[in-house]
Amino acid sequence: MKPIINCIAFMCLIFCAIVRAEVPTFTIEIRDHLFFPSQLIIPANTKVKLIVINRDATPEEFESYELNREKVIMGGAKAIIFVGPLVPGDYPFFGEFNPKTAQGIIRVEN
Amino acid sequence: MHMNKYVISSALLLTAFGATQVHAEMNRVYHPYVEQNERELEYGFVLRDLGGDEVLLNRAGMGYAWNDKLFTEVYLLTESLTHEGEQIRGYEAEVKWQITEQGEYWADWGLLLEAGTARDINSHEFAAGILWEKELASRWVATANAIAEYEYGSDIEDEFETALRGQLRYRYSIAFEPALEFYLDDQDWAAGPALLGTVKFSGRKQMRWELGLLFGLDADTPETSLRGGIEFEF
Predict the structure, then answer these.
(1) How many CB atoms neighbour CB A74 within 10 A?
(2) A61 close to B (CB below 8 A)
(3) Residues forming beta bridges with residue B132, ordered by sequence position
(4) What CATH number does the domain containing B174 carry?
């Protein structure tokens, strides 16, 4: 079984390496249950890499139905989230563990 | 394929008379994602042959995501309607491994490993599946599972089976997502519409639900089956 799994994983990685391309990177920080910046402007029709750094001691979940993303970031840790390519518009996101304070928008512009 | 289906149909007949076999079911399409530290309680059912010789297959599960890559779940499988009261069919355990980060590549990939055993007969299974998902334009999401399964035991015929499941889902809103699904395996060929949704509670508590109607695509598959599930995540 293990050689089969290794083979499958290897094929996936080869496939991924072939189709992978460098993407613009942006950083969002979580401090005191707030996102910084709370508004991020990214280019339209482009895949973007978000590095979300949680400076708080408690975990937070980056969530956005509009972006189709949910990702838990443990306290003092960081997570990578890929979004897009997106058409121009506003895409809200929030912190599921602190939804009243942790809110933000990704603005996609041409 | 026809021989295979005959053997499995016979096994299903045995099931109806009290013997029990764990086998692939039209129970869900898996997504290749894991949410770190997520705990999950789940109930799901497949009501086979709606309006005919109905068999209700139930599963109750409890799962936990150990990190952002690995999710494990154990299941108790039971069967209703064909027996007085309820009968335990078997037990299953599964591991889901999220291989790629969502959205990083052209499509998202995961791996599913399952082990199961029946309670009343000597029947065991191991399964491995590739989980694939691709976000399409205009809120459409395509998901597919390709599963290979090996069944063995002194009460069944040892055999290798394969299954392909697919779902095309429209992300209309978090509470309501219509979908089309198909299930192709050595036992059933079925397809039909499904509805999915999520109800949010406070914090990270939420309930996901699914309901699907499946129509048999060949003579050996029940004309109509109903599948459903509720997952409470916390």
Answers:
(1) 17
(2) yes
(3) B109, B144
(4) 2.40.160.40
Domain boundaries, position B193: 2-233
B38 pLDDT above the threshold of 70: yes
B172-227 confidence digits (pLDDT tens): 999 999 999 999 998 899 999 999 999 999 877 999 999 999 999 999 899 999 99
Query: Does residue A4 lie in a domain region?
Result: no
- Total domain count for chain A? 1
- Owner of token pair 């491995």: B128
- Tell me the residue range of the domain where A105 lies: 22-109
- CB B128 to CB A4 under 8 A? yes
Structure tokens at A40: 């991020």
Is A60 a domain residue?
A: yes
Residues of B in contact with A96 (CB under 8 A): 203-204
Question: How many domains in chain B?
Answer: 1
Whether B135 and A68 lie within 8 Å, measured CB to CB: yes
Buried b / exposed e over B31-46, threshold 16 CB at 10 Å, is: bbbbbbebebebebbb
pLDDT at A106 over 60: yes
Comparing alpha-carbon positions, the chain B residue that sits nearest to A10 is: B99
Strands (E), A1-110: 25-31, 34-36, 39-43, 48-54, 60-64, 69-73, 78-83, 89-95, 103-109
Residue B36: pLDDT band (50, 70, 90) is very high
Q: Report the amino acid identity of residue B184.
A: L
* ipTM of the prediction: 0.79
Q: Could you tell me the two tokens for B167? A: 């779902």
Which pair of structure tokens corresponds to residue A76?
């003092």
Q: Considering chain B, what is the average pLDDT of its residues? A: 87
Total Cβ atoms within 10 A of residue B10: 12
